[in-house]
Design brief:
It contains 4 helices and 20 strands. It has 338 residues and is mainly β. The protein is elongated.
């Protein structure tokens, strides 16, 4: 793992790459490259010869890596080594990147050592490439992790959700503040809901362990004991590939995760990675707003904030345990610092 003096990841240097002795392989056999292009499956494979003792450095060079590091402050940041622009990406389609190693074979003839594990002068390594569903950018060119290594899952769902609330516990309110009326008993509400998922990819293990910043934020809260799972966005959330979701319209409904075993040379528990998927539910009128039918003045019928204290609040200022959902700064879901 190549690192800078401050602990952040860095690219392999020119001499380090030269030491790998990288050569293309299979050109005369017409297997360098092998490409496939079809809907949702743009892939490529390329074989290379690499110095045997440098094969794991080459793998990290083409696949990239991620780790946490502590900047001045102290502030914990996420550093990424991107797939190399020459060997880790398609030369004409830079969004097609190396995602796994298909095959490693010794070349030409091996020599058994004392441990009966053969050694070779070269390794024949076949690299698999596929189209990335996220933006690639360097540490220096990234202001938020929402702008890189975050992908929209391919499926979503829309429906009309019906529900009831305990009458008398909440009140319809509008700016002023003016109490409009208590929420009546035994009345059903409906709202359109669009559900989609965003996956934050290839995260260091120490970001999502029980002491990690992301894990604690989701399930333990940030000092207040209120988990962010089940909260609504208090600020407008800008997602590069999807647009802007106004404050109050996104509910963090569910989180799922996938443990990844690192393909890099430093295989250990510390090298484990995670893909963490945030399941959001979007409703355009906001999760803390409900429709109020005003029988005395029908023109006043509209969506109003619902609170239990009869006070009106902006979406970013709704106090905890006051409305239907607590609000949190969802943009900080992607913040590696606790």
């Amino acid at each position: 793992m190549p690192t800078n003096p401050d602990g952040s990841l860095r690219a392999f240097t020119g001499p380090e790459v030269t030491a790998m002795q990288i050569e293309t392989a299979g050109v005369r056999e017409r297997i360098h490259p092998i490409e496939s292009r079809r809907v949702n499956d743009n892939v490529m494979t390329r074989p290379f010869f690499v110095k045997w003792s440098e094969r794991f450095n080459f793998i990290e060079h083409v696949l990239g890596d991620s780790k946490l590091w502590v900047d001045t402050g102290p502030v914990t940041k996420l550093s990424r080594l991107l797939p190399d622009s020459t060997f880790g990406r398609h030369p004409d389609s830079t969004q097609i990147i190396a995602d796994y190693i298909e095959d490693i074979r010794g070349h030409p003839v091996g020599i058994d050592n004392v441990g009966q594990f053969p050694t070779y002068s070269k390794a024949l390594i076949t690299v698999h490439y596929s189209q990335a569903g996220f933006t690639l950018s360097t540490d220096a060119g990234t202001t938020t992790e929402r702008d890189r290594f975050t992908t929209r899952e391919p499926t979503g769902q829309s429906d009309i959700e019906a529900f009831t609330l305990p009458g008398g516990a909440f009140k319809f309110v509008k700016a002023g503040p003016v109490v409009v009326a208590p929420v009546p008993f035994n009345i059903s509400f409906t709202r359109p809901v669009r559900r989609f998922s965003l996956t934050w990819c290839y995260l260091p293990n120490d970001l999502y362990t029980t002491n990690g910043a992301l894990f604690r934020r989701l399930y333990q809260g940030t000092g207040d004991g209120i988990p962010w799972l089940g909260t609504v966005n208090k600020n407008d959330l800008v997602i590069t590939s999807l647009g802007t979701y106004p404050a109050g319209t996104l509910l963090l409904e569910k989180v799922s995760d996938r443990l990844l075993k690192s393909p890099l040379s430093a295989v250990s528990l510390a090298s484990l990675k995670w893909d963490v998927t945030f399941d959001f539910a979007y409703t355009p009128r906001g999760w803390n707003n409900l429709f109020f039918w005003d029988p005395s003045t029908p023109a006043n019928s509209d969506y109003y904030l619902v609170t239990n204290d009869g006070n009106f609040y902006a979406p970013s200022a709704v106090p905890d345990k006051t409305s239907l959902y607590n609000v949190r700064a969802h943009e900080d879901l992607w913040n590696p610092n606790l």
